Amino acid sequence: MASNPNWAAAIIFYLLFIGGLVFFVLSPALEKNSWQHALTAGVLFGLMSYATYDLTNLATIKNWPLIVTIVDLIWGMTLSASVSVASYFLAKKLGL
Q: Whole-prediction pTM value?
């Protein structure tokens, strides 16, 4: 790991991630009036987003630990699903 994280890269990733959640998950869930859609699409969006990084590392970096990939994929799915569902209910409460 880097001794000093690249904060600009981290911020850019999470801004893109939030934009993706809004476009691919939250907007369709609100159109369908379905928190279940927000949950399911959120899980899948998180899996695809985090799998891009983790599975690439697993395929290309020598001795990349499988457990890191598994834990990070679970984190990505959990993060995405929870943010999607919470955002869905917040948007409904705000009348969006």
A: 0.87
Number of domains in the chain: 1
Taking the CB of residue 18, how many other CB atoms lie within 10 A of it? 13
Q: Are 35 and 89 in contact (CB under 8 A)?
A: yes
Of 44, 3, 47, 9, the residue nearest 25 (C-alpha): 44
Note whether residue 3 is domain-resident.
no
Residues in the chain: 96
SS3 state of residue 96 = coil
- What are the tens digits of pLDDT across the range 25-60? 999 999 999 999 999 999 999 999 999 999 999 999
Asked whether residue 29 is assigned to any structural domain, the reply reads yes
The backbone torsions φ and ψ at residue 64, rounded to the nearest 5 degrees and listed phi first, read -65, 125
In a domain, 9, yes or no: no
1 in helix, strand or coil?
coil
